[in-house]
Amino acid sequence: MNRKESERLYEKAWDLIPGGVNSPVRAFMSVGDTPFYVKRGKGAYLYDVDGNEYLDYVASWGAIILGHADDGLNQEVAAALEDGTSFGACHPLEVEMAEIITGAFSSIEKVRLVSSGTEATMSAIRLARGFTGKSGIIKFRGCYHGHADSLLVKAGSGLATFGTPDSAGILIDLARHTYVADFNHLDSVRSIIRDHNNDIACIIIEPIMGNMGVILPEKAFIEGIQEMCRDREILLICDEVITGFRVTYGGAQHLYNLNPDLTCLGKIIGGGFPIGAFGGKREIMERLAPLGDVYQAGTLSGNPIAVRAGLYVLKYLKEAAPYRLLRERVEFLRGGILEAASRASIPFVINSITAMFTGFFSPDEVNDYETAAHSNRVLYEQFFKAMLEEGIFFAPSPFEAAFITLSHGENELAKTIEACEKVFRKIKV
Ligand SMILES: *Cc1c(COP(=O)(O)O)cnc(C)c1O
Question: Tell me: the pLDDT tens digits for 227-251?
């Protein structure tokens, strides 16, 4: 595959942009490669500046669900442009968006729009602290909630349950208010709550983990979390930035019967434009300025283009209810890829749910951080590169979800399974 023009651009970008990229995971560094440059996308495919075609399983990290450059969505955006790109004033579509979101999520009574998932989680945490008057937050190892200071925190060493910064520039004094627990291990949450009894403002969780690869919650775990929150006056924040309108209409909380105090949304709800949202119980949300004492704001919040694009997508998802189809397609892929791996004697497992999945090079089930972290990265690197040669783009890191869109039809699935068949035979265990 010729990638000359991409290589030229990357070299130039390397000089001008830190690491050549505007978000670290785009760098292909963790798979020992360099990125291709996308000229355009259509349906399930990306086309790079050298004329190569890639079947896309990154789908803008889950933001795309209809497929790239959807005709209906494009018409909608073109019409929106005619009316202006930003007002910094109220407009009717933001009311409609709030109505759609509160209609889809029974736990959300009021919602506020922001411009990214990071802003949504950052604001939800501030609100939880403001509302409860407590400082501590609990997050889970391997969950990603954007790059706000309180959330870019990893587990402290040894027996310490409080966190340490996961990035230079984050204050230790702040990071120590973030406690890091283990997903699917209720005891780890219990012991943090026991040791820091009255100081936990909230637990923030991806109810279905997408950022360590897909890891499903055990029922007892997720129900236990909900119960602990209720008993202790700890707010439960579901980060559904990925899962929100992907796993079903109404998100993971609908599937697992959760009733969080706050929910964060992003990605899909902007139809590929920058957006985020957080919402929840009325009495909590009413603590936000201008009503209350928790400040939060944004020049481009509720941007009319992003909202109009998002509305188009959400209305489509509501009316067409394509979730069964998306689930069947992922199941079909899962079956075919697992068979191919087994024929090549490759240790491989796949975790999946509607419209998202992750294959781990692992002989054992993957159901928590440890088991995911122990999957084989060297094999993934071989897989990633060989699949890219076959014209199939998976995430350039082993710990990510693969996403399908409504444009991933039978041809695309068959093509993927066929490529896996070929690539698994080439991989050297
Ligand atoms: C992507 C993501 C975020 C951050 O959203 P951005 O729009 O990238 O800031 C937060 N939480 C989860 C679960 C995500 O996957």
Answer: 999 988 999 999 999 999 999 999 9
Distance 145 CA to ligand 1 centre (A): 5
Tell whether the model's pLDDT for residue 197 goes beyond 90. Answer: no
User: Does residue 118 have its Cβ closer than 6 Å to ligand 1?
Assistant: yes
Choosing among 3.40.50.2300, 3.40.190.10, 1.10.357.10, 3.90.1150.10, the CATH entry for 4-69+322-426 is 3.90.1150.10
Of 3.30.1330.60, 3.40.350.10, 2.30.36.70, 3.40.640.10, the CATH number of 71-320 is 3.40.640.10
- Assign 429 a pLDDT band (cuts: 50, 70, 90): confident
> Does 76 sit in the ligand 1 pocket, CB within 6 Å?
no
pLDDT over 70 percentage in the chain: 99
Residue 360 sits at φ, ψ, to 5 deg, of: -110, 135
What totals of helices (H) and strands (E) does the chain contain, helices first? Answer: 15, 16
* Pocket flag, ligand 1, residue 122 (CB < 6 Å): no
10 Å Cβ neighbour count for 104? 20
Nearest to 313 by CA among 352, 268, 347, 258: 268
Minimal-distance CA residue to ligand 1 atom 8: 117
Q: Which one-letter DSSP state was computed for residue 398?
A: S
